[in-house]
Design goal:
It is built from five helices and eight strands. It has 298 residues and is of the alpha+beta class. The protein has one domain. It is globular. The relative contact order is 0.10.
Amino acid sequence: MNTNGNTYTVIYSTVLVVLVAAILAFVAMSLQDKQNENIKLETIGKLLGAASQVDTTFTIEEDADVLGLYADNIVAAFFVDGNGEKVQDMNTGKEDKNKIEVTTTSDLKAQNDKFKKLEEGESGLLSELRLPVYIFDIKGHKVTVIPCYGAGLWGPIWGYLALDEDGKTIDGAIFDHKGETPGLGSKIADKPFYGKFHGKTFNMTGEDMFTVAKITAITEPEHSVDAISGATITSQALGKSINLWAKYYKPYLEEAARQAEKTAVSDSTLAAGTMAEPIDSVKTAAADAVETNVNVEE
């Protein structure tokens, strides 16, 4: 074959492309399990990072066993639908930490796509939603972690919000992105920004449950966070994502808050009854003592 001819060049190029593609495909398949494991570890780290902000004494070391920390501090993990109904449990790793189940960004994207259809008026999807809920006990503080996901300026942005038992107070938050502008939009992943969310609340009665906006445009500071200077688009996109996800979690959060309040009242009543018993016993003993003294005197 003429090595200087076009036929040889085409055949050589085709063989080379096929060979390289085969090698890359083999490598990708070989590393798939490791990639999935890294994604899971990263997600677990984010979940713990949000939940742990409820207690400043709870620290996560750089070389910490995040699987073990997760399994030790998670109370429950499950999915709810758009009506707030629990539909499926996730493995929390209590028996085997290597079997922990968490949702990835691709799972969040799938739910976000359904949100868009619902916002466009498509019906019947509320019961098809699978919204992940993670409940942690951090040194006696019970927090519920929920995700958010959306489109930033240059790519997807996502994060996790840790909520108090009242279903609306933010105890912690953490965010990430795929390609926001370094030094500007990328700052959503920095503590000086996400630390502002601590103590803020969802507006459970308003149309917008939460906003991220320029400070001059904020009218309800308790339900808002100041946008990053120079990254208004990314900041507002994050605020819209949080607001949209909170909207579809609202039925669950409201019911969880009602149940937590009932439990608190029940515990308070039980504690009051327990306190009354010793007091009644003391009164009875005192009365007996008085009666005894009277009898002796008589």
